[in-house]
């Protein structure tokens, strides 16, 4: 089982996270922000990872620090749980429809962090979760997981559906990329011999 636990304490947040990549989609998430809880529960459910998260942040300011720091800790935990990445597929692709919304997420567990986040001009926010927080989460996750992450909302009109399609898309792309390919057992998926 690929498991990890991480903790982060700052002047703005106090976060404890345990994950099991090879889990059964069992999530116990508490961030103090119901919509963010919903997004993280979706991420765990659709990636099939187990996640136990207790995050306390300065939500009286806004949700920015909590969302960013959870992304940091989740990325770090996933990177630790993946270990040397021997045998993984490495790449993941998801086209995620959510009613009128379609989002494409492409991930490379390359150990080289890079994020491309694209949304059409005028894309609406969810009622209590600005779209900028989705981007902030993606950047924090990718920088600490050290993955190449491309997220593009192809179209959509409902802010809730847009955020949901992003988080579900990340879940499906990660699930595919982190899958162990039996034909590649013990092999690092790179001609360099390391990621």
Notes on the protein architecture:
The protein is α/β, with parallel strands linked by helices. α3 links the parallel β7 (114-118) and β8. The protein has four helices and eight strands, in the order βββαβαβββαβα. It is globular and about 45 Å long.
Largest sheet: 4 strands, mixed
Q: What are the segments in which pLDDT stays under 50 over at least 5 consecutive residues?
A: none
- List how many beta strands DSSP finds: 8
What Rg do the Cα atoms give? 16 Å
| Count of separate DSSP helical elements | 4
The whole-number mean of residue pLDDT values reads 97
Derived structural class: alpha/beta
Q: In whole angstroms, how far apart are the ends?
A: 20 Å
- The fraction of residues in strands falls at 25-35%
Shape: globular
SSE diagram, text form:
Layout: E1 3-9, E2 13-20, E3 27-30, H1 34-47, E4 50-57, H2 64-82, E5 91-98, E6 101-108, E7 114-118, H3 131-145, E8 148-155, H4 159-178
């Amino acid at each position: 089982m690929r498991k990890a636990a991480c903790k982060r304490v700052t002047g703005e947040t106090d976060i404890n996270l345990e994950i099991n990549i090879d889990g059964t989609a069992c999530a116990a998430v508490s961030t103090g922000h119901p919509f963010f809880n919903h997004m993280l529960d979706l991420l765990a459910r659709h990636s099939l990872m187990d996640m136990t998260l207790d995050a306390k942040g300065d939500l009286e300011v806004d949700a920015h620090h909590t969302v960013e720091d959870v992304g940091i800790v989740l990325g770090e935990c996933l990177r630790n749980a993946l270990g040397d990445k021997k045998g993984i597929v490495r790449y993941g692709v998801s086209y995620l429809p959510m009613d009128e919304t379609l989002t494409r997420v492409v991930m490379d567990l390359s150990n080289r962090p890079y994020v491309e986040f694209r949304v059409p001009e005028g894309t609406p926010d969810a009622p209590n979760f600005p779209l900028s927080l989705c981007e902030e989460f993606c950047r924090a996750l990718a920088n600490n997981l050290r993955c190449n992450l491309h997220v593009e909302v192809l179209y959509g009109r409902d802010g809730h559906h847009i955020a949901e399609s992003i988080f579900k898309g990340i879940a499906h792309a990660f699930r595919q990329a982190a899958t162990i390919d039996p034909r590649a057992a013990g092999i690092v998926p790179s001609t360099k011999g390391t990621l």
